[in-house]
Write a structure and sequence with these properties.
homodimer, 11 strands
């Protein structure tokens, strides 16, 4: 059964006035219109949202039904920051079951009205109880991974800075990005430490936003084809991971996606990967097979992942500069890859992009969803 | 493709010492053992959990993987109090996709360590933003529904009390129930008002607990067969419902389940339905076709829904007396119906039970999942 993405919708990411429901509805209506459909054409819906602690709102399936003014079979899906990719996977399974023809997937998060200390505590809910009790924060967990990568592979702060400057440069050409601010390597290196060796400009921001896609098994539909999808959950406790500089969930999910697609890393022309921290992009670059293990830092610094390079990563600006409204992120990645494969990205278009990949991770990389699309 | 439930697990419900992870793991390991399987035999997992606000824990897919000490494709599903039934539906879709053979479904909630006022606020997150802002609580919303039912259909407080006394009587024979306390109609009527006409003994409690099932498409498996499943989400705002004494989501989900099963209400021998408040059982009895619209109160008072009656409802004790750990509830209903159809319920066994139904609702009945099983 061929599945195609026929519609995409995406709000601006940033510090926004709209409510959670406003953001969700806005992205959904844009995606439905983009697919040339009406609300009545949707057979089933999946909603990605990370935490009800931000705005105190659960039960988004009924909120979506209310907003669209129709009865619908809607389901909320959560696996920390991988919620968006996972909601897309559940839509794929629903279509493959044969019980539905056209699915809506929307991801949404409203984070910026929450006090930063509370947000840090809420985000820590994606870590293990032991890590939470010990006071771990996500910058701290990713800093451990960075330190391990530095020691094992000689990766440097300068190489991480290359990820940040690239993604900020890309976001300059994305009008929906949270930040449109060019930054230099010196800016990154001089920014204040958050959890050494990670500094402020190694970290993605807290953002509001929503993204939506329409995916269908309609054989007459014209759209971007899903080629493969893979998913994995591993230990939530980072300290149980044999190699702190690795993300086994990404390797496994990637292998599953490549196998289903019948493709290899060399076939990928463009990818959106989960740069919640610069070190995360480096490790995923390796786990997805775009470079050798341990070479992710030098690969980024070489320009291979920049626009015009061997495998442009995060042309949208990534989580780092486009923003990271948690539940929306995985769906936003798919929106960008679909637009790249449609060839409608204007001055951030990756030339001749025929095959694209999305990698969405949760927590410290203990869950991951990888999806591959082609024209 | 035939799907069968081959294993069930269920912790005690109540005020428990175990953590969220302990409860989840306990139910899961029991279900896997009950199915005669090992952890390695599980291909995909679904976790129902309502709110991360109770214990600050998200990312249960990775927590499950950690607890089972293996990589797994796990997804958390939420639609308020319908999360458990919905997680089961997602497992059904995953199996019907053909990508997996054996699925684990676990529902869990840890509520009792939270201060009651905080719990009331967290539970209100299943209502609409407008209702939350107006200070609505779920007892208040269901009280409105009760009042509407009283006015439209002449239903009385005494008839609601019959639901409570029946479910408490049933729970006396369920060693896993939160309450083992026989109550009289007079006890119910004399209990303190919570939101008139609902009194304390019209309301289900806050509970801790977990329940799990194994469902498989393995054609060689021996188990209880899934005959039909239906799901619906409607307006989250109760005040938009044309008839406050109705639950359209239950009627729609029920019709979908009956149609898929090729069965009618007359074929059902036993049912677990969502008695978060006594009025909820009355309305669902009608929406599921067990009695005429408006007749749910007198039907309960007649003894038709008691053990030995025409259609025994909630032999487990229901949410009212077995307890209501929100994420676990929908899965717990399936556990009970499977046990009834296996004929292993001892002195709470419904005689000759051949076909059973579960009805799990979310919020004020704005989402619903109905499933039907047979021997």
């Amino acid at each position: 059964m061929d599945l195609r993405v026929t519609g995409v919708g995406h709000t601006r990411f940033g510090v926004l006035d709209q409510t959670l429901g406003d953001l969700m509805e806005s992205a959904v209506r844009e995606a439905i219109a983009d697919a040339g459909l009406t609300v009545a054409d949707i057979d089933v819906a999946y909603i990605a949202n990370f935490s009800d602690s931000f705005v105190g709102q659960c039960h988004l399936p009924a909120l979506l039904s209310d907003r669209l003014d129709r009865e619908i079979e809607a389901t909320r899906v959560e696996s920390a920051c991988a919620s968006g990719g996972l909601a897309f996977k559940e839509a794929v399974l629903a279509l493959k079951s044969g019980m539905y023809r056209t699915a809506l997937v929307v991801g949404v998060e409203k984070m910026t009205q929450t006090a930063p200390a509370d947000s840090t505590r809420i985000l820590a809910g994606a870590a293990s109880p032991q890590e939470i009790e010990a006071g771990a924060t996500f910058p701290g967990l990713f800093a451990l991974m960075a330190r391990a990568h530095f020691e094992a592979h000689g990766t440097s702060e300068e190489q991480l800075a290359a990820v940040a400057t690239k993604n900020h440069a890309n976001a300059l050409r994305n009008p929906l990005a949270h930040f449109q601010k060019d930054i230099s390597a010196q800016d990154v290196l001089a920014s204040r430490p958050v959890a050494s060796p990670l500094k402020l400009l190694d970290c993605s921001p807290l953002s509001d936003g929503a993204a939506a896609v329409i995916v269908t098994s309609d054989p007459g539909a014209d759209g971007i084809m899903l080629r493969g999808i893979g998913h994995a959950s591993t230990d939530i406790r980072l300290y149980r991971r044999p190699d702190l500089a690795s993300m086994p969930s990404v390797e496994i999910a990637g292998q599953r996606a490549y196998e289903m697609a019948g493709l290899s890393p060399d076939d990928i022309d463009v990818a959106e990967i989960h740069d919640c921290f610069t070190i995360a992009e480096v490790i995923q670059t390796e786990e997805l097979g775009f470079c050798a293990r341990g070479a992710g830092g030098s690969f980024a610094a070489s320009g291979a992942t920049s626009m015009g390079g061997r495998i442009p990563l995060n042309p949208s600006g990534g989580l780092k500069a486009k923003g990271h409204p948690v539940g929306a992120t995985g769906v936003s990645q798919i929106v960008e890859v679909v637009k790249q494969l449609r060839g409608v990205c204007g001055d951030r278009q990756v030339k001749d992009a025929g095959v694209g990949l999305c990698c969405n991770i949760g927590g410290s990389g203990s869950s991951a969803v990888v999806s591959i699309f082609s024209r």
